[in-house]
Prior knowledge:
This protein is α+β, with helices and mostly antiparallel strands.
Amino acid sequence: MKRPLWLAAAILFVAGIQTSSAYELTGRVVSVADGDTVTLLDANLRQHRIRLSGIDAPEKRQPFGNRSRLHLGALVFGKQVTADCPKKDRYKRAVCRLEVDGVDANLAQIEAGMAWHYKAYAREQSPADRWRYAKAEDRAREARQGLWGDRAPVAPWDFRKTRKTPAR
């Protein structure tokens, strides 16, 4: 069955709209602000503030906040990374999945018990990433890795509410 030319053009147009905001960055991580925020310096020497997608790490003033930042730093600081960035957040940061040396750094934070799977935004992840991140959190929790070794870990989103800290 042959589709009319206008229908094919409309499909391509809609597909282009849906993916137009997604982009990829490559560069070196020059700063690690916390367990889910880094600064990437690209080849044109432009800095990009990046919020890691699919995860929420403890705030700096929370237990494990500094350990989470240090763990992320050990994974990515000073290294060449690829950032898959499907969107920007309300603070104009790129929201990205970081890959360094073939490793998903976002997932590595969860596996080490240094971040939660940010389920409130899980619908924005691919089904495969959603499943991997959720399972990694389950395994880290069962093994009492990182923050899961705490008797009663407080999720960052709850911490921000109780402390009336502005959302990052």
